[in-house]
Design brief:
The longest helix has 13 residues. Helix content is about 5%, strand content about 50%. It is mostly beta strands. It has one domain: Porin (Beta Barrel), CATH 2.40.160. The protein is globular and about 50 Å long. It has an 18-stranded antiparallel β-barrel. It has two helices and 18 strands.
Length: about 425
């Protein structure tokens, strides 16, 4: 089905392959040795930051195989930051001028390592009292982020397991190439990709991205076939200011795992714009072209149009709407098969500590309406989320997937309560 190309959350099941020991060891060794080859750092500003996020939830979904679920997650994160000293020799004035010209003022080294520990227990899958086969345990321990970076005020180079995302759309995203963030997820979780990325920001807010990926075995969004193992992928993005907004062009090329075909390459082309006048409006489009003859799956087009506006009602009522066209065919822009999705959201702050949001998706082909509401309450020790949904009980629709791995499958009628706690500790390096 054409909806299989629209994962709001990665379909690479709940069990993500463990990071190879060799790859992790090389990354950690690089993170430890790289600062030794850098110029002397300002130790007074160098520091370590340890933070974490603990979340726990309980949910009920009438259409799920196991309706009742309880679970928890912990995301520990360690950050190292080492600002680099300027060279105070006789040519320091000229060097400072050169630094500003090339955007290397404020040079620093930093690194991040984060884990993802989660587990969930699903219960009452049978018609009788709990017994063997009436429950299912899911859980994992994996590396969530792991990268090192050299950056300045205008440029950065980042290497390792990292998040890469871009685009103007918010709910229906044709440029969701490397992340799996679901707008319904209060945690905004997404697995990272292994690779290197460089960015440069010009004085007029234009910017250039380049990246290379390697060793990512799981399917990324909008991928029907995995990439060929240990074959580099590469791409880039150019973003420029246009009037009261901005426009960008994005490209990515990879080699698919297709043993029986000679031409295994897939090219992705993306275009996105956003403007803000009286209202905000945007357009985002992607062309996915496979060089191998795969019939109707050879070419895909995804186009999203959207707009938002904040009405002066009470504390401010935010409204946004998007519509996406999904098409496929043997040739580009053939539109042999099409599907349409619409999304609509409302957001209203009830006060300093409370916020309520509603989100609706409509599948025009299946004539299915998906409804989601979330109340957020800030307490002294964290955030409390109460989420409810009323959806059709249909099978294998990406709009029914849980907002994050291990959370509720939103089929039928249901509710989810989640408590999120955050902590942070900073220390100076002497």
């Amino acid at each position: 089905m054409i909806f299989d190309t629209l994962p709001l959350r990665s379909k690479a099941a709940l069990q993500v392959p463990k990071v190879p020991v060799v790859r992790l060891s090389l990354f950690l060794l690089t993170a430890l040795l790289l600062p030794l080859n850098l110029p002397a750092q300002s130790q007074s500003d160098a520091g370590l930051k340890f933070k974490g996020q603990l979340s726990g939830w309980g949910s009920y979904s009438s259409g799920a195989e196991f309706p009742l679920m309880v679970g928890g997650r912990y995301l520990p994160q360690l950050n190292l930051e080492l600002p680099l000293k300027k060279n105070p020799d006789a040519d320091s004035i000229k060097m400072d001028s050169d630094r500003k010209s090339f955007g290397i003022e404020g040079l620093k080294f930093d690194a991040e390592v984060a884990g993802n520990f989660y587990g969930s227990l699903e219960m009452f899958g049978g018609d009788e009292l709990p017994s063997e086969g009436d429950y299912r345990w899911r859980g994992d321990v994996k590396l969530y982020r792991g990268w090192v970076r050299l950056s300045s005020e205008r440029a950065e180079i980042r290497v390792g397991l990292q998040k890469i995302n871009f685009g103007s759309a918010m709910m229906l995203r044709p440029l969701m190439w490397f992340d799996t963030m679901d707008p319904r997820d209060p945690l905004q979780l997404t697995d990272g990709v292994w690779g290197a990325m460089g960015r440069y920001y010009f004085g007029n807010n234009a910017n250039i991205w380049v990246w290379g990926l390697l060793g990512n075995s799981r399917l990324k969004p909008f991928e029907a076939l995995p990439s060929e193992r240990w074959t580099p992928e590469f791409g880039g993005r150019v973003q420029v200011p246009v009037g009261s907004g901005e426009a960008a062009f994005t490209f990515h090329r990879r080699k698919m795992d297709l043993p029986l075909f000679d031409n295994k390459y897939e090219n992705k082309y993306g275009l996105d714009v956003r403007f803000d006048y009286e209202i905000g409006f945007w357009a985002e489009a992607a062309l996915i072209n496979k060089r191998a003859p795969l019939g109707i799956a050879s070419s895909q087009e995804l186009i999203t149009l959207g707009a938002d506006y904040t009405f002066g009602i009470g504390n401010g009522l935010g409204v946004s709407a998007e519509h996406m066209l999904i098409a496929s065919g043997e040739k580009a822009f053939e539109f042999s098969a099409t599907a349409n999705l619409s999304a609509f959201s409302l957001n209203y702050p009830l006060g300093m500590d409370d916020n309520i949001s509603l989100m609706f998706y409509y599948d025009w082909r299946g004539e299915n309406l998906f409804n989601f509401v979330r109340w957020k309450h800030r307490v002294s020790f964290g955030d409390l989320f109460v989420m409810a949904f009323a959806n059709p009980e249909v099978a294998d629709n990406p709009l029914l997937q849980g907002s994050s791995a291990g959370s509720a499958v939103m089929s039928g009628l249901g509710i989810q309560v989640m408590l999120v706690l955050n902590h942070q500790t900073k220390s100076k390096i002497r």
